[in-house]
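README: folding subset

This subset contains proteins for which both the sequence and a predicted structure token string are available. Records are stored as plain text. Below is the entry for Zinc permease (235 residues), shown exactly as it appears on disk.
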Amino acid sequence: MTVVLLILSVITGVFLGKHFGKKEKLAKNLLVLSAGFLITICLNEVFPQVYTSKAAGNLGIFVIAGVLLQMVLEALTKGFEHGHFHHHSENNILPMALMVGLFIHAFIEGIPLANDNQQLSPYLWGIVFHNLPISFILGAFLFNRKNESKASPYPSLLIVALFALASPMGMLLGNYFNPDLQPYFLAIVGGIFLHISSVIIFESNKNHNIDWVKIGLVILGVSLALVMHLFHSHP
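--- output ---
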């Protein structure tokens, strides 16, 4: 079920991006909604598991490492994960660099799932909600390019396939790690989640005006995550 959800979240997002990718506002709204959900999952689910573990005193540096790692990955993806994509500057993103950056990002997120003892856990749903808007933008970028009709679709399909399989592959590798390392991987992913969601939520609006739609979407994302937090068992 976990693998199916991970793959479906990518395929669904890419499909929507391919057919509705020109609606940039829709992509941004999906990102903001997912950011509210993701930061709540991070603070209510991921960090409590990290800081109640036996190694809690040493894990802050791994959270910071996750933040720094995501900053490095964004040098490859050009901020793709939080919506810094514009059709007029598509040539600034190299498909190979994009593929590598997104693959590493999703692969690392999948590792903690190997030792996630809960079916349909909030952490899993955090990844699913996070995948949808990224995949939406990915689909818009890959399948709505000006030169798409002249180019072979196979490189685009390869990027989608690798992104869809990255988290399941990370989960597979996680089975070979000592379960005692789980808090360390969660700390790194927590840093990644925190960086991405905070950039989406707190980046400045144009002219510093209050964007009530954005605030409402963040509140909706937070509310969905809180409902999930309240109605699942905490080990």
